[in-house]
Amino acid sequence: MKSYCNNSAYKTLMADQCPLTCGLCTGSDGGCADVLNSRGVNECPGMYSYCFNSLYVSLMKTQCPKTCGYCS
Questions:
Q1: Which parts of 1-72 fold into alpha helices (H)?
Q2: pTM summary value
Q3: What pLDDT score does 24 carry?
Q4: Which residues form the ShKT domain (predicted)?
């Protein structure tokens, strides 16, 4: 995926979805990012309702920490 970081067709998408991979993390989130699916899509925003469901908290902390607000 890193090869897409400087590709003009993907640069904006990569900066948004893969800032750590592209070396663009400058904030205090420590590179905290949601995991992308096999197609490179972040499905976490659509699954926000699971963030605080006791059955899914552990999974959401590892898969969707940015969306769920678990980044320290």
A1: 11-17, 57-63, 65-68
A2: 0.58
A3: 67
A4: 1-25
